[in-house]
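Usage example:
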Amino acid sequence: MHPQRRIPSSFDGRIGTMMQPVRVRFAPSPTGRPQVGNIRTAMFNWLLARHTGGTFILRIEDTDVTRKVGGAVEYIMEGLRWLGLDWDEGPEVGGDYGPYFQSQRLALYQEAARRLVEQGDAYYCYCSSERLEEMRQDQVARKQPPGYDRRCRSLTPLECAQKESGGLRPVVRFRVPESGQTRFRDLIYGDVVFENTTIDDFVMLKSDGYPTYHLANVVDDRAMKISHVIRGEDWISSTPRHLLMYKALGYEPPQYAHNPLILGPDRSKLSKRHGAVSILEYRDQGYLPETMFNFIALIGWSLDDKTEIISREDLVKNFSLERMGKTGAIFNREKLDWMNGVYIRGLAPDDFARRVLPFLEKDLPTAVRRPLHADYVRRIMPLVQERTKRLTEVAGLVKFFFVDELEYDPPLLIAKNMDRSTTLKALEVSLSRLEKLADFSEALLEALLRPLAEELGLKAGQLFSVLRTAVTGETATPPLFQTMSVLGRDRCLKRLQEALARLRTVSS
RNA sequence: GGCGCAUUCGUCUAGCGGCCUAGGACACGUCCCUCUCAAGGACGAGAUCACGGGUUCGAAUCCCGUAUGCGCUACCA
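Running the assembly step on the lines above writes:
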């Protein structure tokens, strides 16, 4: 196997980097429930770590006090765990490179910023956000590229002191070179080049003492010995800033691999307005974690020209950055549903029943007594397993097994090419014959009913259709005999009598 | 506007110069199976490989340009 066969080496040639152990990280910002796009990036990182025997690190980038959302870290870990993406270092598991919350590493960033200022690679900026906003609007109006105008770039220490004595809290900006270019070889996208003149003096340290993503990720990736940064493609434009900082700090940068984005149906970056975006919502909508793992991995990655269903083990065994695509992909719900059906059908019956149970408890009509009888549920589940695509739809499929009173429109009892009287007759005769049947086993039911259809001058399908509706109140159900068998003699007979009574009230 | 990236069936993709009159999957259509619904099987429709130039004996594959789309352009990540 040659994981990065196609990547011409520029980093590989550098002494010491080639045999470095793989250390990758997933560094989400705790701003809400984990989105599928971010989770996919986490997966690719995890996959590379597991494939190479490396280390997968979870680091929380909580550097934006204003966007922090309570409980978000728990949600993120919950999503990761649900998919089986275990981390070797990070919250709750610790590690030698902690703390793994950036809000607890402030001194490190401040120290780096101070050093860069001392070296002359960064400077204090006292411009107010109002001024900056005005400047931007002006630039846009004049069709100039927006960017900091570097007003504070050459303030003297004395001027700085004066501003500060006036109560101004500065930010620290990076002093971007005014010439030259910054380039890197992305493991997925290949060579990417930026003119330094197109990069503005970005903020590294905010006035509240917190770092921006740019500074924090560089400092931490270095401190945590990250070997590969796999992150969303939307970061590609920021990469030269990071590279510039590595250079100023005298650090060797990690290797970069940007993965393409997951798009909404309108081809724009997937966001809340596209509907379900959190991995946890997919869980709640009845998708299996193995489905999500398989499906998400195959958005942007492929094994070959035909593999669609692939296990986690095979994914780990075969994963490589080289087989990553570079185009954004729309999340195809129909295909997800199909794949979930495939995985559901592959579940052992008891496993299926076990996974459905919580959905049943939640979704069955409130009139149904809880807790559900596990053995009864286990008998029903095989009848619907191959018919379900999402766990959430099972309740609707098996409702009639639990409910006391069926609700349906009586004329529905009348099958194709039949009328009220033939249906009445079919029901009457069936009922009387069935009453004499002591054991409602599948085989006996079939042995009785099939010949009966002929005797009544009906096609088997017609009789079965009448009985199906009578006994379930539905026109689409699992096979009749199995259904009746599980329902049991008493309930079937009772429902047949009810059906008869209902149909009699229908005028002909 | 600037910069960056991308561009193969509706969608997800295979394709690394000849195997491609472009393969697979979802969805779709027809048929088979069948007590309904599924599942399964068979078949089919669906892509002038964004467009235009090159390079080459030969290009979906390499190069250039154009178009379109997306991303970034915050004291967000």
